[in-house]
Amino acid sequence: MRRILAVLVAAAALVAAAVPSVAQERTTEKTVWLCRPGLKDNPCDVSLKTTELSPTNESLGVENVKPVADPKIDCFYLYPTVSDQQALQADRSLDPEIRSIALFQAAYFSRYCKVYAPIYRQRTLQGITGGGGGSTESTDSSVPTTYESALGAWRDYLEHYNHGRGVVFLGHSQGSFVLSQLLAKEIDPKASARKLLVSAILLGGQVTVKEGGDVGGTFENIPACRSKSQLGCVMAYSTFGAPATADSVFGHTSDEGLEVLCTNPAALGGGSGPLDAVVPTEPFAPGTTIAAAVSAVGFGPPKDLDTPWAEYPDAYTGECSTANDADVLLITPQNGAPTLNAVPGTWGLHLVDGNIALGDFVKIVGAQVKAYTKNGK
């Protein structure tokens, strides 16, 4: 576990800086899809049957959740840093940790959208810590950078699959940093492109806004979401189980006049609210670095459930906190729910950013779909 923590601490320190600026785009590759409608062995196409649990893991019943028959929008997902490949940049192999993270973070959104997730050339856990002389990209100039890899997949999706449909962008950690850059370059400055934006959910990615405002930082035109039916907006946070400290990796920004955006999915208009945590009952890819780290956090359902998903609607509350000049979503256990462990301490609860409020986000997307279709889009 000490080795895992050392890797994660170093990764946290470098993840923001690791997303490159793009002065020149190289030739893109044919997209390899992790999730896509009609794809064989699709980790985002699974049963959504869910057991509702009390905070102390007592079964409260089973809901046979069904996807909508004809989803009106798409979700475009980029996963966080999970690759255990022993290289600076991951190739596009369908590794167990890649399949597992798609199940954990993206599959439940298939209730309301068609999920598209490319395998992008992310910085691996080894590469993002600066292995190989501090470089975070492949030294082969013919290989697309991480951003170019994701951009190529986005443009492929637009050309061959979008057909004018609305899009929800989903990202976490490295995926959020890369999607933030893509949105800032490809969506935010273009009114026609913004018409496709249903919303963006960018967790653990340090999205910034002007102090006291909803825009003007990462994005000039895409505002923070402040209601469930608001369209063309962004939701973002980093979770902590206690107020963030001065050395916390997330929640701080050195950019003058800016602050890190925190939108509470349980109370988008502000204040506290009960979070709807949802997690797969299948364990994260055994034997991987992230599996060990997730286990150390202490968040997961009992092993004897016979549904693919577990839901905890009353186990935690969330409220945006500004303590110690850090803007984070403060998570508080309720009704006997376990206190979650920060792994490592300066990260807060980064490893559960996605699942601690997955039910809330899916419900918000459902409301946004209604608003999007009502507006004739």
Describe this structure in words.
The chain is an alpha/beta fold and 377 residues long. It is built from 8 helices and 14 strands. A 6-stranded mixed beta sheet has the order 1-5-4-6-7-9, sandwiched between helices. Strands 2, 3, 10, 12, 13 and 14 form a 6-stranded mixed beta sheet that branches. The protein is globular and about 50 Å long.
Multimeric status of the protein: single chain
Q: Which stretches are low in confidence, meaning pLDDT under 50 for 5 or more residues running?
A: 20-24, 132-136
Mean pLDDT, rounded to whole units? 91
Helices and strands: which structural class? Answer: alpha/beta
The overall strand count is 14
SSE order: HEEEEHEHHEHHEEEEEEHEEH
Distance between the termini: 49 Å
User: Strand order within the widest sheet?
Assistant: 1-5-4-6-7-9
Shape: globular
Total helical elements:
8
Radius of gyration: 19 Å
Proportion of strand residues: 15-25%
